[in-house]
Protein 1
Amino acid sequence: MSSFLRACAQLSRKSVRSVHTNSLITVCRGGLLGTGPTGAATGAAAARRRYLTTPSGDNAGTSPRSSTGKGSSRVLLLVLSSSIVSGLIGFKLASSPAGGLMSAETGAPEPPAFGTPSDFEHAIAELREAFSHDPDVVSTDPEDLRIHGFSDYDYRPGCLPSVVFYPNSTEDVVRMVNIATKYKMPVIPYSGATSLEGQIRSHTVGGICVDMSGMDRILEIHEEDSDLVCQPGAKWMDINDTLKEKGIPLFFPLDPGPGATIGGMLSTGCSGTNAVRYGTAKAEWFLNATVVLPSGEVIKTRRRSRKSSAGFDTTKLFIGAEGTLGIVTEVTIRLAPVLPTTVAVVQFPDVRKATEAVIEVMNQGVGIRKSSPPPHPASTSRDPYATPAECVELVDDRFMAATNKFGVSTRKWPVKDSLFFKFQGPSAASLKETAKVVKRIVEKHGGTGFELARSEKEAADLWQDRKNAHYAGMALLEGAKGYGTDVCVPVSKLPELVYETKKDMAQSGIVSTIVGHVGDGNFHAQLLFRNDEEYKKVREIVDRMVHRAIALDGTCTGEHGVGVGKKKYLVEELGAGTVELMKTIKRTIDPLGLFNPGKLYPDGRDDNDPGTGTRSAGKQA
Ligand SMILES: Cc1cc2nc3c(=O)[nH]c(=O)nc-3n(C[C@H](O)[C@H](O)[C@H](O)COP(=O)(O)OP(=O)(O)OC[C@H]3O[C@@H](n4cnc5c(N)ncnc54)[C@H](O)[C@@H]3O)c2cc1C
């Protein structure tokens, strides 16, 4: 044990030696391969997706290794033993004469060595042999590689994986991980493919893209406990549809991009429009996760009970880890009761006025209470009721123009900065009451044209338009690429952030839209570019926006995650000590550095995010 601790201590200062494999194999295709449709919802990946819902209580498909019959002490033992094994492997590697520990030039820890192209060929052959009973599990089909190498949601050039692996069970993942480790091959978990900061792109040396879309089953529904056990490839929208079809009045409230899956959502630490009322992935919506660690060990982070104070929260270790610490193969999620909702829209003279109105609405208790309780003691409102809202969304004038043109709702809206509210309450009367209170507040801040959706359908369509903001925004400038990104600040700082950013965008002449979950201080910008010059401007605007957010005590990303796009801001935001702690955890759990390399942890290199001057519009994914 003491040698393990020494090993960990060394690993926190050192890392394994770099071998510049880029020169050995080049699979990064900066542009030309990215012109077609992507893997998000099309092609072979989508064709392989299945939806097999088992009845409530059906345990089929649950990994035997992840059985709930293991005590938390066993879990801790597993974590510890896997850490010991991982740590010792890392120590051995780091100490090996062939390894070397630090960069001779800079003294900084260097990235780990990957296998050679020949090693990767052996790995693929071994994978094929191991899964010879089901040839569909291992694919090197060029179209499959292309689909998995690019994303419409990532403005950066893509990289091809060497092979795509489609597991059907936790055991499949374990076998794959053992082969990857043997041949030092990068492993890139891939699920709904809707992430926006380059999280799923392969490494420049290639690697095994692990497409979890085949593991998409709901395994158990516990209506009485308001929870559900599922595989990581299950999509949040499908889960909610299934619950509705089965007449179960519960839903999963985290709502990121359409098509996102539970595994990807956990791994990005996502949230969405519902966060005002329900919080984010970092709240307690994920009760436990079964994870295959880089050592090949399978752990389950916790049992299904609603609460646990048994040690620190190992589930959270994987929330936002972006696939760098393990592959999630099963998850228990919490569900919330479905309540009646409706949608209202109101226009403002500018985003500053709109965000000031949001602050007052929030301070009335919006998003906290479900029904009409007594007024908040600190409330200055004369109204006797607090105002329950599920979502408060800011959209700018350009977004409204885009929605009028491309949205699914038929109503045409004034082209002005606007707020979308989703109210939630136990009855239609309570929704009307809420609307009355909000109307009064927003009008005080210069809001005009406050309107409630006229029907459930109109409310659903309007909300769909808001959820599809990405696509409507993209349609504003034909042939353009979109750079979508998010930041988050304390709500009181939001007016300043949004106002300054919008001014910056207007001065630059870049076509852009702003949408935001302003109820929790989170806003998103979608900036369009058609050439290198515009792309350079876009990068500069985003850079200024991120620095502005951090200076306002905020974060470089409220919900999209770090990927490759935001890793350079982490030290500024979190401090070197916190980032080093994250790296120490990574080195301990994944000493070979094989899991989703190049993502999340700042490494002083920007090799996956090459910056300006390297691209032409229309040539990338
Ligand atoms: C139109 C649109 C709107 C969006 N709106 C929002 C929003 O409102 N809020 C928000 O938070 N995000 C939003 N997003 C971003 C995106 O939907 C989220 O980041 C989502 O959580 C990604 O889930 P996914 O299944 O697509 O994951 P992927 O993109 O497949 O993967 C994301 C990350 O998780 C890792 N990963 C995937 N599966 C596993 C697994 N089983 N085990 C371990 N690691 C894994 C991957 O390696 C990668 O690092 C939006 C995207 C789009 C396109």
Protein 2
Amino acid sequence: MVKSIAFDLDGVLYPWVKFAYEYCIEMGWAKTDIYTFFESVFDQTLSETLKKNILDNPLLCYKALIEKDYHELLWKFDRAGWDIYYITLRPEPIYFATHSWLEHSKVPQYNSVYFPEKKSTIIRQFNIPYLVEDRKDVVEDVKNFCDVFLINTYWNRLYEQPKNCTRINSVLDLEGYLL
Ligand SMILES: [Mg+2]
């Protein structure tokens, strides 16, 4: 049986929120703590142009290569014969930076990256049994098609996850479940 797993990038393999927040502080757009900034300021008070400047900014996808421990974990999956998929909802202006980051981070199967409108499309297309994710809207999208490992974050802390969704603190916890 082919074993396969899909990883989200931001909030799972890459701390985009942290880098976006630091950038907003530097630019003078964020004046609150990180939680308040993303929970209320970002969506409610920033202009569409500013939001686009942040969300479409390739530099924010490249503030650091992948963490060493995460890199090692991905290679453990690869060596154990798993097919790996990287599935992200990042917008088109940062596709290139995303490809480049995966390649330069030297993650296994780095060409296996997908930018769908809905992750369930790819999960169903390749019949992938596991997704590692941080967003509750994505869990809702895929929950009927695969099991989910949900990374605990402040933006999903109040979410009542479905039965086939297991909360973990970091991708490193996957080792205890799947490897
Ligand atoms: Mg994410």
Protein 3
Amino acid sequence: MPIDRAQYTRHFSKDQVAAWLCPRCKHGYLKPIRDGFLTVESAENKLAATDEDRRDPIFEEHRFSMLLQCSNDICGEGVVCSGAWGYEYGEMKEEEEEGGYFPAVIAAFIPEYFVPALDIFQIPQGCPPRASDEIRLSFRIYFADPSSAANHVRKAIENLLTAKGIKRFVTEKSGKRKIVSLHDRIVQYRIRDAENADLLMAIKWLGNAGSHDAELTKEDVLDSYELLEVVLDNLYVKHAKKVRQLAKSVNKRKGPMRRL
Ligand SMILES: [Zn+2]
């Protein structure tokens, strides 16, 4: 299922919090608990308040914590979200007293941590534990540190290839053990599964950019999650394959399937 990217990239306002899916039951949505919203000023901000040049609210930095609860009564999981907030300019508004149009100043909240972490996509049950553990570690730091989140995705696909029997080490003639690069392992895997190998290669390129060139953005990490979700579905859920099989059977019958 495509990831609702806005939920995981945009800031939110206090009266319009994103409808994040409950990480426990995966049915309910997380709703802010009444009086569960706290904010605190940064020390830097207090110093800036005495500085003439920095009195503009747009330079202010604050921190917040927010308590959320799952809307599903049977579950009722409690989640804590914390992060930073500040003011930013919104749409232009007419100010009669001032006589003209001015940008509205709105409070924007940026989550950095959720405890427990959100499941940004659903990991299928059949996924090898060593791969799913890395994906969960990635979810834990996604908001605060996208590049590190991408690094865990890279480890997840290394572990996925190991589970598929693609060797991580080779023994050289000298008897020395040598690590096989992720690139070479994917090339080797392509011999038997070209479709998924291409998706894994794309994830690898995204991860490479994160570890060598520049910081990855949340959008880049969401790209790698989308690719990984399809790989896991192809390998462990096989939904598309099952649907293709269903179409084949219906076409053969030229009508509905007979079910007892
Ligand atoms: Zn729940």
Protein 4
Amino acid sequence: MLKFKCTFRNNGVSEGTFLRWWAKSGSLKNRLTRIKKMDETLPPLFTFGVIADIQYADIEDGFNYHHTRKRYYRNSLRLLRRANEKWKGEAVKPSFIIQLGDVIDGYNKKYNASETALKTVVNELDKSAIEVHHVWGNHEFYNFSRDELMISALNSRTTNDTTSTMSEDTTALEDTVESGNVSDTEESYAYHFSPAPHFRVAVLDAYDLSLIGRKEPSVRYYEALEIIQAHNNNDDLNHPPVFDGTERRFVKFNGGFSKCQLDWLDRLLTLSDEKLEKVVVVSHLPVHPYSTDPICLAWNYERVLSILHSHKCVVCFMAGHDHDGGYYRDASGVHHLTFEGVIETPPESDAFGTVYVYEDRMALRGNGRVADRVLLYP
Ligand SMILES: [Zn+2]
């Protein structure tokens, strides 16, 4: 059953007043029944599936970097298949699936198996015949260059008719940076789409500013180098600079968002505010320190948070990367969901969810390690 949590956050009604109204309007039991009925009988406006960190590779099980978590490289494909079966059998078939990044593991590169592994997971996803929106994570860049990704099956921006870069609504996402006589145009993999009237999804590129998602002589590569060197003196930049706190995020396997992309997001959310839309923002890297181990945070997460908080339309921010998952509803009412990774999910469990979208809320129905949650609108 879905969890229902009633909060009194920022609504200007005291708990006492609310309870008095509650008592007048019917017994607690009746009210709860109505809530339950509403959850289980009213059809959603639409639904969508979410899955994170599949990291498939045709290799034996292994462990994470610190040898604290087992990784089930082949089983991850079986769990993807199980998620697909569930989505295909849903009474309301999901309108789309969000794949939150790291769809195949970096080990594939070592075994020259990147293309084969990608084909395997894409074939599996295709079986559902449901549109998939792919987010790019660090493992995408361990396997492929940005140019390769742009023309691969993982570029869902170009394969979906319903998607658009911001260029159609406001200005182009492409950033032209003048550097002496050199004009450097750097494209981000960020786009948005509207799955239903008054709803929008924004897909962000968390490696827009990074050492793995950009290559020399990219201006953004040098900008990323400057950022990481200001915080991390280690020879191995995948090793965090400190043992504790949010400074640990300054590692090579993370990245951030360029100013251009953040300006684009700000403009997009301004338009969504005007259109009274509800927006879901997705990225491989989480942006709230309470929704993840801080080592997984995007470098400039504070900037993203300040943009999210300056708009009324944002319902939730969904991310992957931290395989343990996490959840936090911040003071502005934005739900931060970090999805548990398929790769560290044992064969007897699962890690995926289906989001049911209603007029007044979204309800996440989790499977296995992913918990059920009601996401009331801010
Ligand atoms: Zn990752």
